[in-house]
Amino acid sequence: MRYRSRGRVKISTIEDIAKLAGVSKATVSRVINHHPYVRSELRERVQAIIDEKNYVPVAVAKDLRRLQTNLIGVVVPNLHHPFFGKLIQEISNILKEDCYDVVILQSNYAPEREREFIHYVRTKKLDGLIFTTLSLSIEEVECVSTSGMIVICNEHVETELISTVQFDEERAGYLGTKHLLEKGYTRIAFCYDTLKSKAQRKRYKGYKKALCEHHLSLQQEWIFRNCYGLKDGKRMIQMMQSMKNAPDAMFTGSDEIAAGMIMEAQRMGICIPKDFGVIGFDNQELSVMMSPSITTVSTSIASMAKHSIILLHKQSQGEGVQRIQLPISVIERESTRREEGHVSYRPLTVS
Question: Where does the record place the HTH lacI-type domain (predicted)?
Answer without folding.
Answer: 12-66
